[in-house]
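name: query_chain
kind: protein
chains: 1
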Amino acid sequence: CALPICQQRPDKKCCALAESYGVLLYCNTFSAQEIRIITASPEFAARLPRLFKRAFGLGFDVLPKEGTAGKSSFKITDRDKLKKIFDAFGAEIDGTVSHHINFGVIEDDCCRASFIRGAFLAAGSISNPEKSYHFEIVCVSPERAEQLQALIRTFGLDAKTVQRKKHYIVYIKEGAQIVDMLNIMEAHVSLMNLENIRIVREMRNDVNRKVNCEAANINKTVSASVKQMEDIRYLETRQVLDHLPPNL
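structure:
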């Protein structure tokens, strides 16, 4: 899912800022001393420098080496860069990073969608739809989970939260709502792929239901017939079959 999302260009600065905000609040480290983003997605790794350049007009202090396999790490430790980022979100660099989302940064629908996309790229995942439907974003605090849940619900989606060990998960399990979530995040290719899988699964499930229903009806008919044969044989053993009324 990361590839189609990351192919979207961060053209509007307000949306690039909102997406960056989502990335930072749900990434590995976002503090007054350091920003550290670690990802195993090469597509997200390629998107990050462009995103931060568009949002803040700055680059990372530490970039992953080219050709490095596995996880990529991005860092910003320069005080002036950190202050510029904090200022963009209305936060004091000498204070503690708030667990609460500054909704003033994401007032418009496009910016709220971009924020969710950033949070998903930083800490989200979708299960293989061939097996199950499950969309989730991992949060480090209940406050961020609850606010992200509320943000997703502004789009009419029934996001839920659950605690898993030390983390708090915002999740969606209904296939149609995950499709809507992908549409909100502008992951249109992934949306079409998921829709195709959903159609095939629903057709297969519908056929299975009909086959099972037909099999159950056949079993009932066979069971009734077997019972009737047993009754007839019982009457035969009692030699009363010839004494039954003609209609029987």
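note: The chain has a mean pLDDT of 86.
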